[in-house]
Write a structure and sequence with these properties.
This protein has 220 residues and is an alpha/beta fold. The protein has one domain (5-217): 3-Layer(aba) Sandwich (Rossmann fold), CATH 3.40.50.150. Helices cover 31% and strands 23% of the residues. The longest helix is centred in the N-terminal third of the chain and has 15 residues, at 8-22.
Length: 220
């Protein structure tokens, strides 16, 4: 997929916004975009790890400082699974933190724009959010991930951190699609989930729902 030239300012702004917001904090979950105490992080991010039902590789798109990958390693190990973690992010500064956090996997982190980045290999599980791309590019983005990122039998994990939120646009860049019902929105785009995992926000500001999409959801 070739990224149109007129999207470069949108992604440059995305990088600036994320770096300014995440690097202003020391807590690792805040450097990954989560406010509140550590317990809230666990409740709202562990559903991602709960979608992983076997040992294999995980690519975290928008991995920031690598804290989600580090936690997924711990959460899946508790269930006797072995996870091979990878990450891609638009920000080199955030990736430097990820490599420091997981030095044994330093060569598993890549700088790239998820809309057109093609990885050097394919993965068993890929985690993303739809607001990482402008609204008009969501379907093309998901098709790109299915075609270039997933191994046969792989699963795409599409997370929504504003599920059931009355104001899902809070914190999103202009041009992103705000949704508080990720399964219904994926249906509108032509993708049917085969499962989901949920986390209930203790502050009532927006739950987590992770939709599980199989590779067969994509057709050339």
């Amino acid at each position: 997929m070739v990224k149109p030239e007129d999207l470069q300012p949108w992604f440059a702004n995305l990088r600036t916004v994320l770096e300014n917001a995440y690097l202003a904090h020391d807590e690792p979950w805040r450097q990954s975009g989560m406010s509140g105490p550590a317990e809230r992080w666990t409740i709202l991010r562990k559903p991602i790890a709960d979608c992983i039902d076997r040992s294999g590789s995980l690519l975290d798109i928008g991995c920031a400082n690598g804290y989600l990958l580090q936690c997924c390693l711990a959460w899946t190990t508790e269930r006797g699974l072995q996870l091979d973690p990878y990450g891609v992010d638009i920000s080199p500064q955030l990736l430097d933190l990820a490599r420091q956090r997981l030095p044994q996997y330093a060569d598993h982190f890549f700088v790239g724009n998820a809309l057109d980045w093609i990885p050097p290999r394919k993965f068993d599980f890929v985690r993303t959010n739809l607001e990482y791309v402008p609204a008009n590019y969501e379907k093309a983005y998901l098709d790109h991930l299915f075609q270039h990122h997933l191994r046969p039998g792989g699963r795409l994990l599409v997370a929504n951190y504003a599920e059931d939120d009355p104001n899902p646009a809070r914190g999103l860049l202009p041009g992103s699609h705000a949704t508080n019902q990720i399964l219904a929105h994926l249906d509108e785009l032509g993708f049917a989930a085969v499962g989901r995992r949920d986390g209930l926000d203790p502050r009532g500001r927006g739950n987590t729902r992770v939709a599980i999409l199989p590779l067969l959801a994509f057709s050339l």
